[in-house]
Amino acid sequence: MSNQESSLFKDALLRLTTNKLSLFSLIYIFLLVFVALITPFIAPYDYAYQDLALGASPPSSEHLLGTDTLGRDLLTRMMYGSRISLMVGFLATSVALIIGVIWGTIAGFSGGKTDAIMMRIVDTLYGIPFIILIILLMVIFGRNLVLLFLAIGAVEWLTMARIVRSQVLNLSRQEFILSAEAMGVGKLSIIFRHLIPNAMGPVIVYATLTVPQIMLLESFLSFLGLGVQPPLSSWGLLIRDGAVSMEEYWWLLIFPSLAFSLTLFSLNFIGDGLRDAIDPRTADS
Amino acid sequence: MVHSAPGGPFDEDKAVSPEVMEKLNERYNLNAPLIEQYTDYLGGVAIGDFGPSFRYPSRTVSELIFTGLPITFELAVYSIMFALLLGIGTGIISALKKNTYLDYIPMTTAMVGICVPSIILGPLLTLIFGIWLEVLPVSGWGDLAGDKILPTITLGTAYAAYCARLTRGGMLEVLNQDFIRTARAKGLSETRVVLVHALKGGLTPVIAFLGPAMAGLLAGSFVVETIFGIPGLGRFYVEAAFNRDYTMILGSSIFFSCLIIGLNLVSDLIAAAINPKLR
Amino acid sequence: MKSNLFIILLVLLTACSESIKPVDKAVENQILYIGNGTEPQDLDPHIVTGVPESKVLMALLEGLVIRNPDGPTPLPGVAMNWEISNDGKTYTFNLRKDAAWSNGDSVTAFDFVYAWKRVLLPSLGSKYPDMLYDVVNAEEFNKGSITDFSKVGVKALDNSTLQVNLKNPAPYFLELLCHYTTRPVHKATIEAFGEIDTAGSQWTRPGNFVGNGPFTLDTWELNKVIIVKKNPTYWNNAVVKLNEIHFFPVDNASREDLMFRSGQLHVTSTVPPEKVESYKDKYPDNIQVDPFYGTYYYRFNTEKAPFDNKLVRQALSLALDRTLIVEKVTKGGQQEAFSFTPPDPNSYFPPTTLEFDPKKAKELLIKAGYSDSNPFPSVDLLYNTSEGHQKLAQAIQQMWKTALDIDITLTNTDWKVYLSRQSIGDFQIARAGWIGDYIDPKSFLDMMVTGRGNNQTGWSNEEYDNLLVAAANSTSQDQRFRKFYEAEKILIDEMPIIPIYTYTRIYMLHEDVQGWGNNLLDSRPYQFVYLENKE
Fold first, then answer.
1. B contacts of C437 (beta carbons < 8 Å)
2. Chain A residues touching C38 at Cβ < 8 A
3. Could you read off the pLDDT of B66-102 as tens digits, one per residue?
4. Interface test with A, best of B109, B119, B261 (most A CBs within 10 A)
5. Å from C157 to nearest chain B CA?
6. Contact residues, chain A, for C275 at CB < 8 Å
7. Residue B11 pLDDT level (bands cut at 50, 70, 90)
8. Checking CA distances to C364, which of A24, B77, B271, C458 falls within 20 to 30 Å?
9. Is A53 within 8 Å of C328 when comparing Cβ atoms?
10. Is C248 helix (H, G, I), strand (E, B) or coil?
11. Minimal CA–CA distance to B134: which of B146, B142, B117?
12. Chains that contact C by 3+ CB pairs under 8 Å?
C-alpha cells in the first residue's frame, strides 16, 4: 500500500472510533455479526420449537422477547432471521464486489476497445430496474435462497464495476504503475498486486453502503412473498408477520423493526463515515 | 426462456382434460416451434402488442399495463413532489443553520426516514391515522377523500430523507468555496447568494440522484401499492409474478425497462442543463 | 415555515374526516360493499371456476332454481315449478313467462339448451363440464364421442318448457342446478363478439354483458371495484331492495380487516387468524363463524414408498392431535374431521372416527418395518403459499416429529406449481382442500374413484368404486347413504388421504346488513339482502 492509502485508512479508523455514534454503530454491527455466527450454539430455543398451547405471549422471563402465534420464541427467530438477512446482504455484496472489481479492473486497465465494449455492456444493463430483473429471475428459476443472492449480486455489480474502472483509470496514470510497466512486470501481477489493492478505498465505502440497500431490497421481496420463504425467516418476513398482528401482539412488530432499523442505521452511518474519510470534501465538519 | 420455468400457465385448480389443454395451448400459440413463438412475440412487441394475459384471458397485456400505469405514475409523481418539497426545504434550512438544532433535528429525522422502511411505516401510519384517529382512509386511490395522502407519505419519506441530505451536502460544498466568499465580499445580498448559487449546488446532486432513484421508487411502489390496495401497475406486476402470467411479466418488464431508461435520460439532460460543468 | 406547514396539514386532515365512511351513507342509498377476495379472472359463467367469480355471477345471472339462503331446498328461479318423473330420471321445468334479459328479451328454454351446449362443447375449454355429467350423453358429447347435441338429454319443448333426462336418479340434481355453470347465457350477445366457443371475448365487459339476474354489470375496474346495479327488467324486481353492490377485490386479509373497521366494507371474505379470538370479544355481533361444506386434508402419493404402505398412512393420521390443531392453530371454530365427507343437515353422519393415539401410531410404524435399525426416510410435504397452510404444516411437522420421530421437509410453491406437481405425481404428501359443489356426499366421494382427475393419490380400490356405482343406481336416499357409509369406512381404513378438519366460513358482517342468511355453501342470492339500521 502506498503511503497515501495507509494514512487514509488510519484517518478513517480514527474518525470512526472517536465519534460516539459511529463507535456505537461499529460495536453494534460487530455484536450483530458475532451473534449471528454463533446463533446455533447460543439460541435459547430450537429454531422450530413450537409451544402450541402457549401461542403468542408477551415478553416474559422464559421468552425474553415474547412468542409468535405458534408459540415460537421471538428472540430465537430474530437471531436466525438475522443470519439470513445478513447473509443475503453480505454475500450478495461480495458477489457484486468480485464481479465488479474484476470487470472494472480489466476494463480500466485494458483501455481502448475492450474498455469501450465492456462499459457499453454495463451501461445497457444499468438501465434495467433491478427489482424487475430479480423478480424475473426468481419467477424463472424458482424461489431459492442461493439464487436470491446470486440474483441480487448479479444486479449490483454494475455500479461497482464503474467505480473500480474510474479508480483504475486514475491509478494507471500514476508513476508507480507506469514504472512497473516499464520494468516489465507482468500484466496480471500489476492488476492483482498494485491496481486492485489501491482501488479498494471507494470500493469498500460503496460496499458498506450497498449492504443495507440489499437488506432493504430483501425485506421488500420477502414482504411481497417473493423472497425468503417460510419456514425460514428473515427480518423482512418477521416484520411482515408482525405488521399483520401489531395490535394484538405488539412485540412481534416492534422488536424486529427496531433491530432492522438499527442495523440499517449503523451500516449507513459507518459507510458515511468511511466516505467522509476518503473524500473529505463531503465531510460535515 | 419462460417456457423452462416449472409450472405451466394452465395448471388450474380442477384437473384439466387433455382436450381442454389442447384448446388453451392453441389459443396462446404454445404449440408452435419455439423459434416461431419467439419471433412472433418480438414482432408484436415492436408494435406494442405484448399478447394476451394468461391470468385474465379476455384482456391483453397492453390493456393491463395501460390500466395500471396512470395510477402508478400519479403515485410516483405525488411521492416525488412530496420528497422534493419536504426534502429540499429541510435541506436548505439545515445547510444554512449548520450545526445548530435546526440542523441536527432534521438530519436525524432524515436518517430515521431512511432506516424505517415503508414496510414498517405504512402499517404504522395506517393504524394511527386510519384506525385510531379515523381521519384517513386505509385503502384505495382516488375513491375516498384523502386516500392519496398515506401512500404518498409512505413512499416519499425515504426519498425526502435522501433529498434533504443531498441538498444540505451539495449546498455546503458550494458555500465553502471561494467564489461565494467573493460574492459576499462584493456585497451581494445574502438571499441572492443562497438562492442563485448555493441552491444550484444543492440541487445538482438531487437531480443526479433522481434518475437512478427511479428504479428504487419502482420497487417502493410495489410495496406501497400492495399495502394500500392501489390498483397500479406495480400490483399487477407482483400478481403476475405469483400467478406465472408469463406474457404479463415479460411485457411489463420490457415496458418498465424502457420507461426507466427514458427517465434516466431525462434526468441526465436536466442535470446538464442546470449545471453546465457536467457537460 | 415549518409551523405553517404543520397547520396546513392539520386543516387538510380535519377536512378529510368528513366523508370517509361509506357504510354510514350506505343505508340511505342501499349500496352494499363486499370484500371479494382475488380479482375475478373473467365473468363468463362457462369459463371461470373460482369463488370470487361466483359471488359476482350470483348477482348477474339466474338459473332454473335459486339457492335458498336459509336451507337446502332450492327456490324457484327462472323455473316457476317443475315435475319429476317417478323413476327420478326426467325433470320437466315450467319457465315463467315474465323472465327477461337485461336488454328486454324474454328468457326462454332455448337459452338454457344453448348454454348447456356451450358448457359441454369441448372446443370451449370449460373446466366445469362435469357438473352436467348426470344428463344423458352429456359426458359423451363433452369427450367428443358424440358430436350431435340433439342426442344430449336436454330439450326445449317450447319457449317455456325445458325437459332434462338423467342417466341415473340424482336426488341432488335440483341443488346442482343452483350452480352458475348451469345458468343461461344470452346467445345474441355472445355471438356478437365471437363464436359460441370463443373463450375470453369482450362480451363480459360492462356495456356488453346481458344477464337475467337481479343486477346488471355497470363498472369493472381491474384490481379496484366491480359495481352492479339493480336490474329493472328482472322478473322479481319488486322484491329487490338493494340499489347497488360494490365488489372489492381485496386479496390481503389484513388490509380487508382494516377496510372493514374503517367503514369501507359491509362484508369481508375472511378474518385474519390472529384476530379471530379477540374479535369474538370485541365485535361479537359482527364476526360470523358459519359451518362450511368443505374438508381440509392431506393427500398421499400412494404409488411410492413409504406411502404405499397402508400402515404408514394410518400411523401418520393417528399421530395428529386434531383438537389441538383446531383450537390452537387454525382457531376459527373449525371442527375436527372424523370422516372425509363433512356431516350435513340431510342427516348424513358417516360412522367413522379419526383418533389421536400417538402410542398406537408408533406401534403401527414399527409394524410397517420402521425402527431404529431401519429409520423412516425423510419425506416432503407440499403446500401452496399461504399463511394458514404454512402455520398448519409447521405444527403438523412438529407433531409427527414428536410422536413418531420422523423428519418432514416443508416445500411451499405458488398455486400453479402446486397444482401441476400434484397432477404429475411429483410429491409425497400434499396439502389439499375440497369444498362440495352441492350438498351431497357424492361431491366428495366421487373424487376418490379410480383415475378421477382430482384423485391424484394413485389410490385405487375396486370395492370402493363398486360401492359408488351401486349408490348411483340406488332407488332410495337411504340405500344411497348406506352405500356411501361403506365407502367412507374403506376410505378411513385405507387412508389415501388424511382428513384434518371441517371448514368454517369466518368473516365480518356489518350490523346493518339484513337477510344475509346462513347456508352450508356460503352462497346467497342478493335479492333477499338489504341494509337497515336496526337500532
1. none
2. none
3. 999 999 999 999 999 999 999 988 888 888 887 888 8
4. B119
5. 31
6. 245, 248
7. very low
8. C458
9. yes
10. strand
11. B146
12. A, B
The C-alpha atoms of residue C245 and residue C32 are separated, in whole angstroms, by: 5
Highest mean pLDDT of the ranges B269-273, C14-18, C91-95, C278-282: C91-95
At C51-79, the pLDDT tens digits run: 889 999 999 999 999 998 877 789 999 99
Angle C411-C417-C418 from CA coordinates, rounded to 5°? 55
> In this complex, is the C-beta atom of C13 within 8 Å of any C-beta atom belonging to chain B?
yes
Is the pLDDT at C7 greater than 60? The verdict is: no
What residue ranges of chain A have pLDDT lower than 70?
1-12, 15-16, 142-143, 230-231, 278-285
Chain A residues lying within 8 Å of B214, measured CB to CB: 129
pLDDT tens digits, C202-242 = 999 999 999 999 999 999 999 899 999 999 999 999 999 99
Q: Is residue C466 less than 8 Å (CB to CB) from chain A? A: no
Cα-to-chain-centroid distance, residue C92? 28
Q: What is the mean pLDDT of chain C?
A: 89
Q: Do A50 and C385 touch (CB under 8 A)?
A: no
- Per-residue pLDDT reduced to its tens digit, C246-268: 999 988 888 999 999 999 999 99
Nearest Cα to B15, choosing from C196, C421, C38, C297? C421
DSSP notation for chain B: -GGGSSS-TT--SSPPPHHHHHHHHHHTT-SS-HHHHHHHHHHHHHTT---B-SSSTTSBHHHHHHHHHHHHHHHHHHHHHHHHHHHHHHHHHHHHTTTSHHHHHHHHHHHHHHHS-HHHHHHHHIIIIIIIS--S-SS-SSSSTTTTHHHHHHHHHHHHHHHHHHHHHHHHHHHTSHHHHHHHHTT--HHHIIIIIIHHHHHHHHHHHHHHHHHHHHHHHHHHHHHHT--SHHHHHHHHHHHT-HHHHHHHHHHHHHHHHHHHHHHHHHHHHH-GGG-
Tell me the three-class secondary structure of C361-426, residue by residue. Answer: HHHHHHHCCCCCCCCCCCEEEEEECCHHHHHHHHHHHHHHHHHHCCCEEEEEECHHHHHHHHHCCC
Task: Test A141 with B257 for CB contact under 8 angstroms.
Answer: no
Yes or no, beta carbons of C255 and B138 under 8 Å apart: yes
- Shortest CA gap A253–chain B (Å): 8
Chain A contact present for C489, CB below 8 A: no
Residues A94/A208, Cβ–Cβ less than 8 Å: no
More confident residue, C144 or A177: C144
Which residue among C273, C398, C410 places its CB closest to the CB of A50?
A: C398
> Which chains are adjacent to chain B, needing at least 3 Cβ pairs under 8 Å?
A, C
Give the burial string for B3-38 (b: 16+ CB within 10 Å, else e).
eebebbbbbbeebbbeebbebbeeebebeeeeeebe
